[in-house]
Amino acid sequence: MEKKSIFLLVFVMLLAACQPATPVVLPTATPDTLVVDPSISLGPISPYLFGTNYGPMHGIAPAMLPLVKEAGFTALRFPGGAWTDTTDIKPFQIDQLIEFCQQVGAIPTISVRLLGGTPEAAAELVRYANKEKKYGVKYWSIGNEPSIYTELKYAKYDYTTEHLNREWRAIAQAMKKADPSIKLMGPEIHQWNSSYQSTLKDSAGRDWMIEFLKANGDLVDVVTVHRYPMYSPSSPVTVQSLRQNTRQWKAEIEYLRQVMRETIGRELPIAITELNSDPSPAMLQEASPDSFYNAIWYADVLGQLMNADVFMVNQWVISQRSTGLGLLQGENIRPTFYVFPLYKNFGSEQVFAASGVRDVDIFAAKRKDGALTMMVINLSDSEQRVPLQVAGRKVTEAEIWLLDSHHNAENLGVQPIPEDGILTLPAQSATLYVFNR
Fold it and tell me: CB-hemisphere CA count at 13 Å for 76?
């Protein structure tokens, strides 16, 4: 080949390499149909979507430990909530946490004290955990909901974004010096939302997230928020309000990514480190956090956050006796607990799935054993019969796991799929279909 031809060939190849990649165009939903295309990979599913909060105030009854070990929890946030705002973690508590995480098969994330804490105390915890004990705790956060310190009178003064940014940075730098390999999570602000108008501001009108990223975007590795969308102190949460909420999470995640791009010029992984429907102590109501429908809502929310490529989710909370928020209440199991063993069987690579059916959502994955799985959630109050189309594959039978008012994420065994592909979905249900090779 002549030198000129070689030069032109190399030039064309370099020019092509510089062109922006063509965005992947996903199929649209088919009206009144569930569609899955296993050939369209949406990438790996973060294993840390299936976490919860755990700490000294949220102990597990001994009789419940075997269930907890098998539930499928993947990330435990410690010490959980406001405990870390007023108390210093002791080294023996880290030892107990690591032992529990090893039993459960989950990674730990540890939150050190911000309000009243010191850089030296935080750095010592990192040194103890990772240098002395070799626990290798990777993810650390600083404080809990600093955006509410003034309101709760935790601080004896007006706690603002300036206090957070200055104090967080000093502690973060000391922790990084103790172990440069750790990943820092923050700012742990409460009640994230979907627009500048609806997100939280301090007393001077400064946006907590924007100001935090301006000051500490160079140090934080995972951006963290809390969200309880159904807070309604004057009236009980309803099934309909939960049903309408699940698809709102996409906008909240998209807005957070927009804030990151506009403030620091890049996107960071996102973690929702406290999540439940209603933060109030409500119990024994139609749609309070201890209700059956809360479980169906949470199963759908996890799917929506999976679609949004969220890195970590920590449900609030693993155990609590005085409210409906705990997955466990002593030796009582709340329905939302069963969402975790259901997703434990889901898979690690997400593939394309779409629903054209009102009040029905579908999420699909491939497992490492080669199985194709579908999580189909019927949010409606009625049984639904819906057609399923799986591209390039004729499905004739599936192993079925069911969470509904009569089944606690139970394995119903292998069941035939009707010839016409019509699935029967029980009212208010989450069904996992496993199609083995």
Answer: 29
Residue in the block written with tokens 């002593």: 330
- Judge whether 15 and 404 are in contact, CB under 8 Å: no
Phi, psi of 126 (to 5 degrees): -65, -45
Give the pair of three-digit tokens for residue 404: 């509904």
Is 2 exposed, middle or buried (CB count within 10 Å of its CB: 0-12, 13-18, 19+)? exposed
Query: What are the DSSP calls for 2-64, one per residue?
Result: -HHHHHHHHHHHHHHHHSPPPPP-PPPPPTT-EEEEEEEEEEEPPTEEEEEE--TTSPPPGGG
CA distances from 42 to 45, 225, 358 (A): 9, 24, 23
Q: Cβ contacts of residue 397 below 8 Å, gap of 6+?
A: 414, 415, 416, 417, 435
The answer for residues whose C-beta is within 8 angstroms of residue 4's C-beta and 6 or more apart is none
Q: Mean pLDDT of all residues in the chain?
A: 94
Q: Which residues lie across from 184 on neighbouring strands?
A: 140
pLDDT digits (tens, 9 = 90+) for 4-15: 344 334 333 444
